[in-house]
């Protein structure tokens, strides 16, 4: 896959980023954006990294930067891709001000009861000019909407029995920063400002509905429609936010 050039102009107030190739998955695009922003010698914080299942897929011997992981679960101590492992709370990061060049948070925001507190902590530990990369679920997509209104026992049952997830990888969700407007406001309140604040909404695969033929067909139709019409981008599956500390 070729390199994706970052869009020159900021995506103000969460407008859609037209530079995203239609064949690229949201996960691939997010990882490309992260690789575009990190430089050799940088210090990167992987926030809420756990055991590394959704961490940056990079060889630590060749990537050229140092990765510190922080999570309040002991599984962080077994994360194989980290240079430094810290068991701690993202709401009270055990790091000095201006410690990191980049903060990376994939599949974290939806699990935070107080996302605004964590975002302020990310701003605090970033160096001036440092960047924040967030990847999460959009609450206005059917996946996020259903997850928001169903109880934790259902999440555990569905993800374990239907999707094959290990129960240790299934965590409570709150979805308190999972719309374009909400995450934009929280980032601004945390200290991030335009024009260095970009929010993109991308549609992912309907594989989550693969357990049922009819639902899978409906999911594929939904995917085609929201990808085709820009007016429907608020209903795409994944939300990616890139912000810079001035």
Characterization of the model:
It is a single chain. Strand 4 (100-106), helix 2 and strand 5 (126-137) form a beta-alpha-beta unit. The chain is globular, with a radius of gyration of 17 Å. The protein is built from six helices and seven strands. With 246 residues, the chain is of the alpha/beta class. Helix 2 (115-125) packs across helix 5 (180-190). It has a seven-stranded mixed sheet with strand order 3-2-1-4-5-7-6, with helices on both faces.
List keywords for this structure.
246 residues, alpha/beta, 7-stranded mixed beta sheet, 6 helices, 28% helix, disordered N terminus
Give the count of helical stretches.
Answer: 6
**Approximate helicity band:** 25-40%
Task: Work out the radius of gyration.
Answer: 17 Å
Beta-strand percent range: 15-25%
- Lateral arrangement of strands in the main beta sheet: 3-2-1-4-5-7-6
How many beta-strand segments? 7
Helix/strand-derived category reads alpha/beta
- Overall, the morphology is globular
List low-pLDDT spans.
Answer: 1-18
Distance between the termini: 32 Å
Order of helices and strands: HEEEEHEHHHEHE
What's the average pLDDT? 85
Largest sheet: 7 strands, mixed
In short:
The chain is 28% helix and 19% strand. It has a 7-stranded mixed sheet, with helices on both faces. The protein starts with 25 loop residues before the first helix and ends with a strand.
